[in-house]
């Protein structure tokens, strides 16, 4: 009955959408040069595109709401990715998921009696009568699930639809979750942009997904002030960027730059001579060695610290003082511009300017002063000669004020600080050199204020440093950040932070909001429980993930005894293929192990791929990859190979690596070992 009714409504809405679509499609296309008409044509194309999308999947949910202030009966709202009005009546046909009233759909858990939302005219109170999820595929209604009906107790407790969605197999891209955003996620997505939002979330809690939905929300709700082309997303590597690349277009958002800190920094420095040591090359030795033998240069650690930032700042200040003139400027005998006046400009008029701007402003003011001074000569020729001589003197007066590249200034500063060992060799930079270089660039050359970011997202922020973040803060309007990560996955701890306070300290209490999410949506109950037990081996216990109750197969921990690994991997892939798993990962401890297994098995599975830090694409299917590359990704089924004690000795790095590896699995997790399994894999109850 319900299904039939919803099918009827769908047909009615689709008929109306079709009329709008045909009208837009049949408008003559504009090919001319007139800018205003080109903008109109652009808008027409966009509208045609989203009406076409809306015809395929106009909405995904419905709720019935009784507004206490209105006498009329309850109203029905259908929620979709784009809001669409009925052109004949002017009434809302489909409510945009980002609209204030749509927040009722997400925030309502079924237990509240009265609900409210913040409308532009103030708080609106009322009650929900019905909350329904609908799946429409290729314009056909395929599923209708009620998670709340007033006066009825539902057998599923309201979670049926979420569990159905989580149980689906995934392809090679992260997807939008507009149909099933949960209450706590909704709060983060809709948090106003005047505060920096920091999110500590367990593996699989939807941090990345939430951050991307937040961008779509901010662009909708604050469209007058925030622009997509002034937003930026920082993610750890190109594979990850490729993996998340579909979510924003699915949400109808384009134009947001998505990059890594290293790529952005190199682009900003605009020095073609500079190169960065590839992350794979840099991180490989770190991950391929045991922690005991690993040596992290003290300079690497220093270069990301607040202390190093202060040293660079003081050094820049000193260089500036040394290079700016300290004597009066004499244009010709008797025409003296006093240094005291110049110092006054520096301390007052130019105080907030970069060194280069100070130079340019000093030069142009002194030129103007010369223009005035030469007027004391009545003879034109004398005037011209005096001006020529004065300009010559001005050039040599300002010569000390060097126009060096940030790299040369950096080398100079490191020398002055007696950190010769920390000087990057021949323009070959480490990731830690980028923050000081950007710092120098900003101090010396400044930034065009119109290029400041409207909003910055930092994913896997536990691997970011205080220094990097503090620089981005100076490049961002207000405090408009979304910073997300998980300290338990901080496997690059030599690059990142140990505690969120390191970032929070950058803001005053009222300028930032901190959220913790512990519910995990990615994996089955069994995988989450297993992964949580791994974390008990950390001295500083993090928050454990709370599973959404989606049960699956037990985690397999297999001792190979007489079977070799190659055979075991082959059999595992075949079994998973028979279970119709679409994405599979064979995760090893090191890149060379992944290469070894891939090389021996690729003839059997020609569509499989080897993934490394410097790869830029993830195509789904079967992937062979080292654990540190798997961070941020997810797979239907995961096989962790060589989980032996010697590969994962009991220490924080191995614990976090195994935690990351296990939490990549959505539905199925198998772990194999040849000799003694790692102590970290507490196999009780599995
Ligand atoms: N409300 C939700 N409804 C449906 N799926 C969800 C929801 N929240 C998260 N997910 C799913 O959970 C998985 C994990 O999401 P995501 O990758 O954003 O988490 P994460 O916290 O960034 O993970 P990690 O830190 O482990 O990389 C994804 O498949 C995502 O689609």
UniProtKB/TrEMBL annotation:
A cellular component term, taken from the record's GO annotations: cytosol
Species for this entry: Alkalihalobacillus trypoxylicola
Residues that coordinate or bind ATP: 201-208
PROSITE patterns listed in its UniProt record: UVRD_HELICASE_ATP_BIND
Keyword Magnesium listed: no
Keyword Magnesium (UniProt): no
Pfam families for this protein: UvrD-helicase, UvrD_C_2
Annotated UvrD-like helicase ATP-binding domain residues: 180-524
PANTHER family xref list: DNA HELICASE IV, UVRD / RECB / PCRA DNA HELICASE FAMILY MEMBER
Protein name listed in UniProt: UvrD-like helicase ATP-binding domain-containing protein
A biological process from GO: recombinational repair
GO MF entries: 3'-5' DNA helicase activity; ATP binding; DNA binding; hydrolase activity
Record's keyword terms, sorted: ATP-binding, Helicase, Hydrolase, Nucleotide-binding
SUPFAM superfamilies recorded: P-loop containing nucleoside triphosphate hydrolases
């Amino acid at each position: 009955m319900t299904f039939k009714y919803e099918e009827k409504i769908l047909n009615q809405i689709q008929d109306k959408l079709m009329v709008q679509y045909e009208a837009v499609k049949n408008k003559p296309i504009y090919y001319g040069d007139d800018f205003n008409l080109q903008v109109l044509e652009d808008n027409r194309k966009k509208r045609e595109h989203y009406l076409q999308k809306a015809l395929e999947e106009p909405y995904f949910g419905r709720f019935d709401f009784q507004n206490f202030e209105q006498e009329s009966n309850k109203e029905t709202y259908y929620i979709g990715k784009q809001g669409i009005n009925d052109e004949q009546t002017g009434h809302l046909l489909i409510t945009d998921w980002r609209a204030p009233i749509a927040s009722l759909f997400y925030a309502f858990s079924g237990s509240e009696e009265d609900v409210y939302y913040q409308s532009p005219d103030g708080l609106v109170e009322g009650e929900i009568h019905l909350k329904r999820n609908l799946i429409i595929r290729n314009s056909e209604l395929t599923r209708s699930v009620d998670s709340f009906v007033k006066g009825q107790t539902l057998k599923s407790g309201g979670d049926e639809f979420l569990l159905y969605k989580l149980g689906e197999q995934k392809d090679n891209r992260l997807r939008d979750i507009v149909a099933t955003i949960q209450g706590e996620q909704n709060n983060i997505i809709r948090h106003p942009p005047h505060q920096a939002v920091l999110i500590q979330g367990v593996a699989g809690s939807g941090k990345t997904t939430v951050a991307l939905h937040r961008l779509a929300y901010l662009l909708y709700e604050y469209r007058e002030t925030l622009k997509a082309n002034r937003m930026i997303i920082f993610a750890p590597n190109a594979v990850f960027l490729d993996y998340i690349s579909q979510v924003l277009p699915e949400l109808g958002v384009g134009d947001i730059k998505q990059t890594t800190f290293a790529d952005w920094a190199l682009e900003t420095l605009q020095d073609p001579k500079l190169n960065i040591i590839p992350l794979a090359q840099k991180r490989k030795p770190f991950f391929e060695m045991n922690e005991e033998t690993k040596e992290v240069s003290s300079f690497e650690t220093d270069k990301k610290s607040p202390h190093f930032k202060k040293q660079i700042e003081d050094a820049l200040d000193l260089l500036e003082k040394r290079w700016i003139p300290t004597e009066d400027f004499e244009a010709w005998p008797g025409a003296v511009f006093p240094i005291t006046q110049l110092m006054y400009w520096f301390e007052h008029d130019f105080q907030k300017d970069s060194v280069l701007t100070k130079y340019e402003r000093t030069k142009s003011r002194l030129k103007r002063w010369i223009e005035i001074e030469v007027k004391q000569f009545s003879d034109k020729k004398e005037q011209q000669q005096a001006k020529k001589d004065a300009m010559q003197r001005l050039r040599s007066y300002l010569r000390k004020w060097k126009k060096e590249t940030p790299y040369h200034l950096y080398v100079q500063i490191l020398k002055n600080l007696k950190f010769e060992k920390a000087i990057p060799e021949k323009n070959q930079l480490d990731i830690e050199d980028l923050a000081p270089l950007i710092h120098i660039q900003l101090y010396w050359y400044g930034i065009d204020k119109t290029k400041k970011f409207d909003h910055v997202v930092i994913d896997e922020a536990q691997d970011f440093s205080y220094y990097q973040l503090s620089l981005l803060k100076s490049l961002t309007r207000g405090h408009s950040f979304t910073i997300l990560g998980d300290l338990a996955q901080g496997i690059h701890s030599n690059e990142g932070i140990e505690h969120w306070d390191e970032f929070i300290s950058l803001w005053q209490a009222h300028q930032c909001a901190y959220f913790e999410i512990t519910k995990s949506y990615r994996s089955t109950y069994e995988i989450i429980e297993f992964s949580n037990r791994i974390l008990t081996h950390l001295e500083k216990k993090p928050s454990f993930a709370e599973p959404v109750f989606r049960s699956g197969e037990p985690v397999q921990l297999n001792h190979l005894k007489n079977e070799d690994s190659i055979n075991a991997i082959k059999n595992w892939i075949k079994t998973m293929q028979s279970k119709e798993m679409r994405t599979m990962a064979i995760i090893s401890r090191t890149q060379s192990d992944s290469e070894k297994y891939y090389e021996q098995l690729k003839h059997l599975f020609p569509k499989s791929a080897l993934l490394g830090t410097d790869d830029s694409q993830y195509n789904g299917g079967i992937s062979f990859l080292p654990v540190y590359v798997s961070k941020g990704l997810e797979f239907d089924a995961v096989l962790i190979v060589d989980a032996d004690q010697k590969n994962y000795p009991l220490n924080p790095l191995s614990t976090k690596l195994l935690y990351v590896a296990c939490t990549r699995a959505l539905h199925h997790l198998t772990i194999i070992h040849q000799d003694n399994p790692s102590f970290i894999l507490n196999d009780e109850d599995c």
